[in-house]
Amino acid sequence: MNINAVIRLMSLLSLWMRTGEGQIFQPELTPNTFLARITSNTVMLKQPYCVFDQTCPDCEIWLVAGLCSANAIFDAQVNSSTPNILSLSPYPTAFNSSSNNFFLTRVGLLSDFPCNQSSNDQYFVVGADGKCSGINCNGELPDGFSVCFKYLLIYTNETLVNSSNWSVNIDLPKLLNLHNINDGLSARSGAMVVITSILCAAVALLLLLFFIMLCITCCTKKESKEISVTNSIRIPRYDTHDLKNRVHPYDNPAYQSDFKNYSTANTLPKDVTQKL
Amino acid sequence: MGAGALTCLMFVVIALNAIAAAAGLALFAVAIWVAVDGYKLYPISGVSGKDDIFAAAWIAIFTGFAFFLTCIYGIFAALKRSRGFMMVYLIIMFIIFLFECASAITAATNRDYLVGNSNLVKKQMLQYFADSSTQGKQITQTWNRVMEQVECCGADGPSDWIQYNSTFKQMFGSTYIWPLSCCKRLSTFEVEDKEGCMVGKASTIFPKGCFQHIESVLSRYTWAVSWYGFSVLMLVFFTLVIAMIYYMQLE
């Protein structure tokens, strides 16, 4: 019992020490929180330090990138057609409907990634070449799918020396169509409602008051309509009887004493001035 | 109404008209400030066809000056104690009141269409940025200026460029994820860290979105025209009610 526990502990310790050295046997996402770590067409992986511990001076590290559903297809094809690995699935036709759904692209020389220089600041962008046309170019991935990666250690004469495990599934987000953005009215703000309602009420009230004012002024005008009298009316003086040189019967004798105050010689009738 | 009370009412009418004339002149000045568009954000509303905030500002220029002139005429009409003059004054003021109402309501309503949420601005940016049409050039110029001066990227953030398909992605997607205007720059205007900016390293790119700035500027224009116009209209409403009472007491 004790020996079993010790063995178990030792194996766990050795495993821990192994991973403690940084030896991860599969491609991994870069641990930095870059904004473009996973876009709909590209993925940023850690550079392959400490993946393969072989010492192989002319070996190159290649990456298999493809849909996770094609993992088994790749593994089967690798086992069956070993000499032509690199041209198994050229990039331009890789993701067509009847194709293999993976492609291979070169990462770098094995000697460029020694274990003691491992750094998390370095990254490798899968899909950096965009829509390229080379057989093994680093073309972009299809959006909306789950993609998986695998490292291959290839010798110069295109023979496979070693291959890592498959990475975990990485889900690429689907690229959204900008025409689907709904840019209609979102909501009416409170300010707009307040301004509109109060101003409409104010206009209506003003109109109402205006008409009330007009009614009141027109009504009061009709009630108190007075005949306006001009200051003096000129009436021609008609003598119906022949009264020349005699006292005029239409003059009021009561005011004759005041004639000097109010009249001149021109305006008085002729017979009164003769009396004076 | 006694002669003393009528004189008092006349002075009230004159004082209110003087204040309304000053307020109308200030409305004229504020509306000119909006129409001049010092923040140079007109293309965002112009290209979308929803530029009624600026149309309302133009109306407010005319109504503000018209208020000024008519209120001065109103002072003259009140001094003359003439019913005819006061009636003309009331009718003209009412017409200008209607136009200014239209201006205030238009500005407030149109603002909701433009910047109620970031969708319209974002869609326009994705569609027209880096486009070669005249609208595209205007939008590109405007957005580059905003992103560089306000230190922001995209409408809600740099992720707008990643999540959506865009004209920019069609044209430059293989090299650039987002425009270089999103990157932090040195005082010599060179990009601080181009490689870091391209992958979205947090210290080399502007993480916040530009929508907040655009929304605040357009809201500022709108509130200048509509809320200040509203307050001038409330003052004019009060003035007109007093003027109507004065009219009834004349003769």
Textual characterization of the structure:
The complex is a heterodimer of chains A (276) and B (251). With 276 residues, chain A is of the alpha+beta class. Chain A has five helices and seven strands. Chain A has two domains: 3-180, Immunoglobulins (Immunoglobulin-like, Sandwich), CATH 2.60.40.10; 235-266, no CATH class. Helices cover 26% and strands 14% of the residues of chain A. Chain A starts with a helix and ends with a helix. The model of chain A is unreliable at 14-22 (pLDDT under 50). Chain B is mainly α. Chain B has ten helices and no strands. In chain B, helix 3 packs parallel to helix 10, helix 4 (83-115) runs antiparallel to helix 10 (211-249) and helix 5 (119-128) packs across helix 6 (134-150). The termini of chain B are close together.
Keywords, separated by commas or semicolons:
A: 276 residues, alpha+beta, Immunoglobulin-like, two-stranded antiparallel ribbon, 7 strands, B: mainly alpha, 74% helix, 0% strand, rod-shaped, transmembrane helix (chain A), membrane (chain A), signal (chain A)
